[in-house]
Amino acid sequence: MQPDSPPLLDVRNLTTTFETDEGVANAVDDVSFSLYKGETLGIVGESGCGKTVTAMSIMRLIRSPGHIAGGEIILNGRNLLDLTEREMRSVRGNEVGMVFQEAMTSLNPVFTIGDQLTEVSLYHRGSSWSDAYDCSVDMLARVGISDPHAVMTSYPHQLSGGMRQRALIAMGLVANPGLLILDEPTTAIDVTVQAQVLNLINDLKKEFGMTVLLITHDLGVVAEVCDRVAIMYASHIVECGTVHNIYHSPRHPYTLGLLASIPSFHLPKEILTIIPGQVPRPTNYPPGCNFHSRCNFATESCVIHEPTMTEMSSQHHIACWNWEDVTPPASLHRAGIGDRNCE
Q1: pLDDT tens sequence across 172-227
Q2: Which domains does the chain have, with CATH numbers?
Q3: SS3 call for 9
Q4: DSSP state of 263
Q5: Model pTM score
């Protein structure tokens, strides 16, 4: 259930475009969603659908040739798009922290982990150097690093992938932001470390009372840590609902295709479902629904008119003209997927 209080983050009709040699690329097109205090929202979709651009737009980190063409990003009652760059710098880190993709490229290779962590604390908290150092050590310990003093003097290349990921999460948390954006936090690390990072996210959320926006392409990750899910395809959010809604009652054909493509551990020789066709180019999205050329449920309306977001229930919204015809088969549910948050 959504609380009665207003959302911590309210993204309204966000549109972000890029000027390219082939024309204007609509990376994010009229995207809206809300995020309430204390919950975790997962934005899911394949590479290039606009997930990371959405996160970077919230942080106001879009650079030329891209720009935010329209919409509102309301954080704690303020529209971030109305702030000056100086005001926005105080929001980054203090109110919104972000953990970027791939720790090896996000951390500066010529500075120690300690240098990079204390810099964040010095800038955002106005701490003395000794307080910033102590705070950094404490945060490394809180994210599960057993010898934080040794890590403080280490360079990124001297740490394992899991340790670097934990250090990045510590960097995002060191200024104690109310909202933490995690962009593919389990990319490029092995399955065992992925499980550790997901457990860490859940533990930190409980400890700090954080609100989390999780960007991922992994539906298994979403099932482990998210309360609600927004499915993104070709610059649009096409379905949004609770984990139970999305995993047990998907009503958008794209969501159905994603779930049907998840392999089952109980059927080792099964033939996986694939979504036919290819994602359209962002400089040449078709009229109507961006998914219609790949969709088995498409009708003439889908080809001509872009679907609007329809309220199936207070917690479940779908952008599809034919959602009532989309019925998930009984065989869709994969044991264990989506169960944690479905009780």
Answers
A1: 888 889 999 999 888 767 777 778 888 888 888 888 888 999 999 888 888 889 99
A2: 1-95+178-188+210-343 (3.40.50.300), 104-176 (no CATH)
A3: strand
A4: P
A5: 0.90
